[in-house]
């Protein structure tokens, strides 16, 4: 059976179509994937809530203000214009642009760290990840398979060497042996090479695998034995491997008959074998020998090795060839113990994830013992491995109980991943999940963050994912989460900064109109503050480096608002100070000078205080001397640039005409900076007292 979506890379054949479109296995996966609804990210929801809150607040305040003024006898047109000014001052117009640019810059940074994001919002969502469901091979391990031990009926054989370098020695009972003199050893290696589609090739100063790394390990072992590569074989049919069959076989046509060569999971081949090869002779595979094989497999797995069994069967040319014929009544050849060393950086990455309060579940197709052994090597504390068969027998309640403890999932199929992710999400977890195959597509799309493998991942998996790892490395996931946390923290910083600045504008305008004074800020001046000076300074806050404890805090709650009650209270205090200070300066100059001068002073004071106030948002808790005065030079450049730009606004004739400003003298600038200084000094003093060390 050839599945729709299979790439035929060599040869030719004739097939009969048994299903088309959505009725194919490929179509069923597509149907399952399409039924999964795209949902908004946490940031989109939070910004949406913030926008609604601001809209309701602005409309209500402006409407009430216009109504009160009109009932008080004020001209309707004048009150309408005042209400519009009030509404414009309350809305941070530059926020959408700043958020988009920040996320785009984050995507660029993550690309340098081997994480390609397919959606801008993914960067922020990563920062809230609370669970990572990861596979093992190639992600936690190097995916450089090497056969280290072989169990044979005549005894165990060890093979030296690592990687794909075809150099090594064979030893048995501590003594070096010549492989060509051992019939059962050569039979196993021959089957391993024939039932195989891989080969190895030189690449620079080393060797690389072309094809499956596991199959390449058998090619390497065969060359170490003195076998000169693959022999010419007449393969007449093949029964391919999949996650359900857990085995693969090819049928070779020889002069004396047909031979099927089979490799697969030891428990699968043991159930289909009736004989065992010992010193070139076939013996009945009795219970004692079966127990010995299982013990050997268990020992290999506990040492962190993958196990793969090999078998063969001879039959006559006249017999019909089908799966049942080729894969039953087999002669068991032996078991290969294959090492796939953990990535050296995986343990540190897992430790960092644990410190960040992120739970990690390994979900692999390997045996439970192998999964547990590798898990311990990389720092996972799981003491229990649950197989896909056991998962299928559990109710959702039973599986949820398992998910509350440290556990590893082994011998799983893609449907198990999908079920595990959905159940974790019902607990309010934000789940990141890795995958590489076509069958992983539904689970990748269901996960909050679907992570496809860039090296060994299929196009379908990449298309269903939110992020692609260019190096297939688990450490890159943790690095991306750290970057996501930095980005969200910076988004909080500039959202709070822009909000406090707008509160100051709104407060000043509202009180000023209640006092019946001329407009303290004109609409064009409000737009200048919100779109030009504030926006560039806010953007510089998005470049703030991650704080030292960014990966020490637990994942933020899913429903955590960007502006909580404590933050709103602080922003109210900041905004009130900016508003009152601006209003006092305006009234002073309105009584002692012209309206144009008072308006220009208030306009400039708002810009200066807002930009100096931005320095308070570089960190919510730590003073500047703790985070470093020059750790983010861009914010200093932005503040200085905006102050210079405001100078142009009051001294350049063209901008004077557009913004209705007049030149300011040294006295005006001195009073403005004097009013702005407490905003920074008092905040720094509070942070220092709160965090003295």
Task: Summarize the SSE layout with pairings.
Blueprint: H1 25-34, H2 42-71, H3 76-90, H4 95-112, E1 115-117, H5 122-126, E2 131-134, E3 146-152, E4 155-159, E5 170-172, E6 175-177, H6 183-194, E7 199-203, E8 206-210, H7 213-225, E9 235-239, E10 247-254, E11 257-264, H8 266-272, E12 273-278, E13 281-284, H9 287-302, E14 305-315, H10 323-326, E15 330-339, H11 346-355, E16 359-362, H12 368-378, E17 385-387, H13 388-393, H14 396-403, E18 408-410, H15 414-426, E19 431-435, H16 441-446, E20 449-453, H17 459-464, E21 467-469, H18 474-514, H19 523-541, H20 565-592, H21 595-613, H22 624-627, H23 633-651, H24 653-659, H25 666-690
Parallel strand pairs: 2-16, 2-19, 12-15, 17-18, 19-20, 20-21
Antiparallel strand pairs: 1-21, 3-4, 3-15, 4-5, 5-6, 7-8, 9-10, 10-11, 11-14, 12-13, 14-15
What does this entry look like structurally?
This protein has 693 residues and is an alpha/beta fold. The chain has four domains: 1-25, no CATH class; 42-114 and 478-548 and 558-690, Calcium-transporting ATPase, transmembrane domain; 128-141 and 343-472, HAD superfamily/HAD-like (Rossmann fold, 3-Layer(aba) Sandwich); 146-339, Calcium-transporting ATPase, cytoplasmic domain N (3-Layer(aba) Sandwich). Helices cover 51% and strands 16% of the residues. The protein has 25 helices and 21 strands. The strands form four sheets. Strands 3, 4, 5, 6, 9, 10, 11, 12, 13, 14 and 15 form an eleven-stranded mixed sheet that branches. Helix 2 (42-71) packs antiparallel against helix 3 (76-90), helix 21 (595-613) runs parallel beside helix 25 and helix 23 (633-651) packs across helix 24 (653-659). The longest helix is centred in the last third of the chain and has 41 residues, at 474-514. It is elongated.
């Amino acid at each position: 059976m050839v599945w729709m979506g299979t790439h035929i890379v060599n040869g030719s054949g004739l097939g009969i179509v048994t299903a088309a479109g959505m009725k194919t296995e490929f179509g069923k996966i597509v149907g399952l994937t399409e039924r999964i609804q795209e949902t908004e990210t946490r940031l989109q929801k939070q910004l949406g809530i913030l926008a609604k809150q601001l809209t309701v607040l602005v409309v209500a305040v402006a409407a009430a203000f216009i109504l009160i003024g009109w009932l008080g006898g004020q001209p309707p047109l004048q009150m309408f214009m005042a209400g519009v000014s009030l509404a414009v001052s309350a809305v941070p117009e530059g926020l959408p642009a700043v958020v988009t640019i920040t996320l785009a810059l984050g995507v660029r940074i993550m690309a340098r760290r081997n994480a390609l994001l397919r959606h801008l919002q993914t960067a922020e969502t990563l920062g809230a990840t609370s669970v990572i469901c990861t596979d093992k091979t190639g992600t936690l391990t190097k995916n450089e398979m090497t056969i280290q031990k072989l169990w044979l009926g005549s005894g165990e054989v060890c093979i030296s060497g690592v990687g794909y370098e075809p150099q090594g020695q064979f030893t048995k009972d501590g003594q070096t042996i010549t492989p060509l003199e051992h019939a059962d050893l050569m039979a196993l290696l021959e089957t391993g090479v024939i039932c195989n589609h891989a080969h190895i090739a030189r690449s620079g100063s080393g060797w690389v695998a072309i094809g499956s790394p596991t199959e390449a390990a058998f090619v390497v072992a065969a060359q170490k034995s003195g076998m000169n590569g693959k022999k010419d074989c007449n393969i007449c049919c093949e029964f391919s491997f999949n996650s359900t069959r857990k085995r693969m076989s090819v049928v070779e046509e020889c002069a004396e008959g047909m031979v099927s060569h089979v490799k697969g999971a030891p428990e699968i081949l043991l159930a289909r074998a009736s004989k065992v090869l010992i010193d070139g002779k076939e013996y009945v595979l009795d219970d004692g020998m079966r127990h010995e094989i299982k013990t050997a497999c268990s020992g290999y797995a506990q040492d962190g090795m993958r196990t793969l069994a090999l078998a063969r069967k001879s039959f006559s040319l006249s017999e019909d060839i089908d799966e049942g014929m080729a894969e039953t009544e087999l002669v068991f050849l032996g078991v290969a113990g294959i090492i796939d060393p953990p990535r050296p950086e995986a343990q540190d990455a897992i430790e960092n994830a644990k410190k960040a309060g992120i739970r990690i579940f390994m979900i692999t197709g390997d045996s439970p013992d192998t999964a547990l052994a590798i898990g311990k090597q990389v720092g996972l504390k799981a003491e229990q491995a649950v197989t896909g068969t056991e998962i299928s027998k559990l109710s959702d309640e039973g599986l949820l109980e398992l998910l509350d403890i440290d556990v590893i999932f082994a011998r799983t199929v893609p449907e198990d991943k999908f079920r595990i992710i959905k159940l974790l999400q019902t607990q309010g977890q934000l789940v990141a999940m890795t995958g590489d195959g076509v069958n992983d597509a539904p689970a990748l799309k269901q996960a909050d963050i679907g992570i496809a493998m860039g090296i060994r991942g299929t196009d379908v998996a990449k298309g269903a994912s939110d992020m692609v790892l260019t190096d297939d490395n688990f450490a890159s996931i943790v690095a991306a989460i750290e970057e996501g946390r930095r980005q969200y923290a910076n988004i909080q910083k500039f959202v709070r900064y822009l909000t406090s600045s707008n509160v100051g504008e709104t407060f000043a305008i509202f009180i000023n109109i209640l006092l019946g004074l001329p407009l303290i800020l004109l609409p064009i001046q409000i737009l200048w503050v919100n779109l030009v000076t504030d926006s560039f300074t806010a953007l510089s806050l998005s470049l703030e480096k991650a704080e030292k404890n960014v990966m020490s805090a637990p994942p933020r709650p899913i429903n955590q608002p960007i502006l909580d009650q404590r933050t709103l209270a602080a922003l109210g205090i900041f905004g009130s100070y900016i508003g009152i200070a601006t209003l006092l300066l305006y009234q002073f100059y309105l009584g002692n000078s012209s309206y144009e001068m008072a308006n220009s002073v208030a306009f400039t004071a708002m810009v200066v205080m807002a930009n100096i106030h931005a320095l308070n948002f570089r960190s919510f808790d730590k003073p500047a001397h703790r985070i470093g005065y020059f750790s983010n030079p861009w914010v200093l450049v932005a503040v200085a640039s905006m102050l210079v730009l405001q100078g142009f606004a009051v001294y350049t004739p063209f901008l004077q005409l557009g913004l209705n400003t007049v030149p300011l003298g040294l006295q005006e600038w001195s009073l403005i900076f004097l009013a702005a200084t407490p905003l920074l000094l008092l905040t720094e003093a509070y942070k220092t007292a709160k965090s003295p060390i």
